[in-house]
Amino acid sequence: MGPYFGMSSGWFTFWVTVACATDMTLFGYDQGVFDFLNTLNLNDNTSMIGTVTAIYGIGCFVGAIAAVMIGDFLGRKKTILLGTSIMTVGAIMQIAAFNVPVMIVGRIIAGIGNGLNTSTAPLVIEMILNIAGFSLSNWMTYGFSFVGGSVSWHFPLAFQLVFILILYATVPWLPESPPWLIAHGNIDQGRMIITDLEGLDVNDEQVTNDVKDIQFAVTFKEHGVSWGDLLRGRTGDQEGSSTIRRLILGMGTQIMQQLSGINVTSYYLPTVLISSVGLSNGLARLLAACNSVSYLFFSLIAIPNVERWGRRNLMMYAAAGQAFCYVFITALIRCSEMEGYGYQKQVASASVAFFFLYSVFFGIGWQGVPWLYPTEINSLSMRTKGAALGTAANWIFNFMTVFNASFVPIVYLFYPGTSDRTLEDIDRLFRENGDILIFKDKNAISAKRPLAYFERENIDANLDADAVSLGKVSSKEVHGVEGMMVDHEEGVDGRRWK
């Protein structure tokens, strides 16, 4: 039997997907379990509830920063195993906790492990399966709310160990990431893993092209700006490509995602429905669980349409919708608290619809796009750093409040479109357009690739061909690393191998 239990192609890909999917489902599930609040007598202590909730995000931030520092040294496989081991310790501490300090330490430790994992798992999986895990935790806590005793919160907390066991059962025998292996000189091993995943011959042209793509990316990363230079504002040979501006734009999408109020809505919806709307505990939990399903459904709708609708449009329209929802939620709940108002119960109940509608807008526009944008707006050599900074920014702003209305002009004024663009299109835009007010450039904000970009590409191709024919440059110089074209096709999740 060969490596990976003799698996290749379909089954091999399936088990890699199972491991990554489990990792991200655990991420979402761990965010949604809050039944321990009753046992720790925190329901009337709002400041401590906020601390216990937010401290998990601080742990995730630390884990995300740690992944940047050690991820390249360990590789994806060992980083995920390290993160899973740390999460196991944190989960056990939370299960065994009967006082607030132990629970806080457990959530910090679990957050560090989760930060390591979420900074390592593939992007598209991360966008959706954390919502699936969050929805599962909502239904789990709703079901166990009918069970008395400590099992009502012990079991939902302990259930996360199921995901951890699946990770321990799959990740150790799965291969390392081909880009990491090739970047560390193990080209033959990386080629073999690609061969097994694709189910092709080791000398197949597609395998060879994939290996060259990875080598090209590795070479480009070597020309990136170091962390030390970034902190000093230096951009080295990236001068003129608006490196720092592009990093800020990518981080900005993650920051705005957290400032949209999704955590307030997700974490505290049952509490708000009980205290402000006046619903019973059981009905509030049921509605929160139903809302999580709606959230998941509309997040799935966005995936096949993100290219057609465009990143800018999705972010602007969704932010406007979210602001609209919060205006009505605020107004309706305020009316329900007015003494002598004759329709207090009715207007309070009406606010529930806008909580659901908010999740619809967020799921379509702000759940996935902020994870895509940092990898698309940054140059190839800065992509890894851009994604890492975006993830860290997401976690550090995880417990902030609501600023939806301000996002519409921010996106409109400063954010160029990345839909249907090549890496060269984005690089050229930032080299030739130094104006940070991007909305004045129709080509920059178009949802589709502008005709001018196609014309420029054809002109460059003809100039390159003429240069080769005249012997001014070699074909290798024109085509990039090892004879490969510089213009690469991009999918929704960025490059094929990351």
Helix content range: over 70%
Structural class: mainly alpha
Described by the principal axes of the CA atoms, the overall outline is globular
Q: Note poorly predicted spans.
A: 473-498
Q: What is the N-to-C succession of helices and strands?
A: HHHHHHHHHHHHHHHHHHHHHHHH
User: What's the total helix number?
Assistant: 24
Number of beta strands: 0
- Main beta-sheet strand count, sense and barrel state: none
Distance from N terminus to C terminus (CA atoms, Å) equals 29 Å
Please tell me the overall pLDDT: 78
- Tell me the Rg in angstroms: 24 Å
Strand proportion: under 5%
Could you walk me through the main structural features you see in this protein, from its secondary elements to its overall organization?
The protein has 498 residues and is mainly α. The protein is built from 24 helices and no strands. It has helices at 9-31, 36-39, 46-74, 76-96, 100-118, 123-144, 151-158, 160-170, 178-183, 187-198, 205-221, 227-231, 243-259, 262-275, 281-309, 311-336, 344-365, 369-377, 383-396, 404-414, 423-432, 442-445, 451-469, 475-479. Helix 4 (76-96) packs antiparallel against helix 5, helix 13 (243-259) runs antiparallel to helix 18 (369-377) and helix 15 runs parallel beside helix 17. The two termini are 29 Å apart. Residues 473-498 have low confidence and may be disordered.
